[in-house]
Write a structure and sequence with these properties.
The chain has 117 residues and is an all-alpha fold. It has helices at 2-22, 24-33, 38-57, 62-85, 90-116.
């Protein structure tokens, strides 16, 4: 189980990094398309990358994984609400739903694992 959680943490962190660093031009276009301000885009990016780093640090320190997972989950709930508001197709909504589920699994597992110690 521990190995699966490490893989999940790395997958979520890598996904966030890929989208917010490698494909940042797409993020700029999406935020413009949804009429969201630049400052919000920058804040969301900082938060996502910070929570992703916490997921990676959480491989050795479980409470950090819980915080990172809950943080990303919260941001994914917000992303889903925005997608609903702008009536995005399901193909645009699925990534945030997937990341939400994985982040909650990481947080819950980390919390239960941390409580068992």
């Amino acid at each position: 189980m521990h190995t699966a959680m490490i893989c999940l943490q790395a997958l979520v962190a890598a996904s966030i990094f890929f989208v917010w660093v490698v494909r940042y031009d797409n993020i700029i276009q999406e935020f413009k398309h949804y009429a969201l301000p630049d400052w919000l885009r920058d804040l969301v990016g900082i938060l996502k990358l910070t929570f992703s780093l916490l997921l990676l640090l959480g491989i050795e320190r479980t409470p950090l994984a819980v915080v990172g997972g809950l943080g990303i989950a919260g941001l994914m709930v917000c992303a889903f609400i925005v997608h609903l508001r702008v009536k995005s197709p399901w193909s645009k909504r699925l990534p945030c739903v997937g990341l939400l589920a994985m982040s909650l699994a990481i947080a819950l597992t980390g919390w239960l694992y941390g409580s068992a110690k």
